[in-house]
Amino acid sequence: MGICWTCFSSSSSSSSSPHNPTSATTTTTTGALSAGQILPTDTLRIFTFVELKAATRNFRPDTVLGEGGFGKVYKGWLDEKANSKNGTIIAVKKLNSESVQGIEEWQSEVTFLGRLSHPNLVKLLGYCLEETELLLVYEFMQKGSLENHLFGRGSSVQPLLWDIRLKIAIGAARGLAFLHTSEKVIYRDFKASNILLDGSYNAKISDFGLAKLGPSASQSHVTTRVMGTYGYAAPEYVATGHLYVKSDVYGFGVVLVEMLTAQRALDPTRPSAQLNLTDWVKPYLHDRRKLKSIMDSRLEGKYPSKAAFRIAQLALKCLAPEHKQRPSMNEVLESLERIEAANKDPKLQSNRTVATRHVHHRSPLHPNQEGR
User: Region Disordered: what ranges (predicted)?
Assistant: First the structure.
């Protein structure tokens, strides 16, 4: 869950509640977004606290999947019998009683995920509201977060193959494009930790606690206090509190760079000149030869160099300092799908770099990789 890292006084904020619910399911029909739906409001199941307490074995520590600003997320099993792990696997997010932003973000999740359905948005199954207990129940995502796959270390974490990275980028782009075109929702906290993966590495955007309804047709932006995650937030939003639909595109560009390099957007353990990833690597994204030196060494050179360079160029467009200069998410999605299509063309397989060619190449991002 995004945490407010700085706040500015602002004019009246746009309401985070979407338009009045429709009485029947509405389906969008824009190209690749046709699988998305705006649902009636009565689709969510209301769980009792007793049910969720039993499903998570009394919120036992060994069922914790993760933790954010809202609270902890637990793995649970519905309809289990005799304490065996049978039934539907779920993820249960439980509000931390000390969370400052909890109630607002809980309401935002129910408001948006309760009505918006798309294959690349995590599915909210229901919620629990009993006195001080606030919980949300989601589908379980077997592969965890993109963040863990990119930055996790250890024998249990396998590096993502190039084709899987591209698949994840396309899936996340579809989800974000759907948000921007369905009800003009600004997600506001796009980052690797909020991209979850199912058993087939299909990407689904999660955590809608900071989502806002975008500007009306007569407005260019909404004004709100600055919240999100430093390193991903668009510069115009940080500087003014003005939130544009294309502010999300900037965050997507940051994640694209993370997927190329397997380096965090912001890492205080790096030298001060390299603290901010995008500021550091932008010069490398302009040049195909330089790009090779910052690619994730765990790919071992097994990626199509032309496709990688095209994604680097797309990332640069997303990272444009002025929001008007950035492509829309529909345009980003179309670009990624073209790259994927070209990548599958047998005639272009010769563009794939040979792993052994770069094993001893010294990288500014991975200076200790020689001799591996």
Answer: 9-30, 341-372
